[in-house]
Amino acid sequence: MEPLDEKQIRSSFVNCTKGEASRLRLPLDFADLPWPDLDFLGWVDPGAPLRAHLVRPGADGPLGITLRVPATGRTSAAKTSLCQICLTGHASMGVSLLAAPLAGPRGRDGNTVGLYVCADLACSLYLRGKRRPRLRSGRYQESLPLEERIERALGNLDAFIAKVLAA
To answer: Is residue 76 part of a domain?
Structure first.
């Protein structure tokens, strides 16, 4: 992913107001992000921990989605959960159901769409082995090459974004 500046990020959001986009806080490590290892930028807002954001680069420029983080996490420590973007298996607390308000009038009416995703939104780093999930049992190994896993993850993300944008 090519590096983005603060203005590009804030102007990319499609499912929140300009005021909300101007108030969101960028990741604490924004100056040190590993841009070459990212397929999209995702983070939990350090100023509002019940909000998360993701920005997907695209041919027409970046597209940002704001998400709601559940107030309480799942408590079953024995369960393994799977991220619906990158298909990384995590201990149950490593995956959260994030809800995105729909873009436009339907979102303003309170309609949302949800997705189970890595709680830290670091799917790109999990795909590349730069970050490891905490699993009690052994981690499964995929036979797909990295490029195909990235393509699959971006396809999953794009399908979710399409739901957010649906009129």
So the answer is: yes
Q: What letter represents residue 105's amino acid?
A: P
The string of pLDDT tens digits covering residues 60-106 is 999 999 999 988 655 445 577 899 999 999 987 899 999 999 998 88
Neighbours of 160 (CB within 10 A): 22
In 3-state terms, what secondary structure has residue 125? helix
CA atoms of 5 and 10, how far apart (whole Å): 9
- Residue entry with tokens 């921990």: 49
Q: Domain of residue 34: give its range.
A: 6-165
Give the count of domains, the chain.
1
Q: How many CB atoms lie within 10 A of CB 108?
A: 12
For residue 1, being part of any structural domain is answered with no
DSSP 92-118: GGGEEEEEEEPSSHHHHTT-EEEEEEE
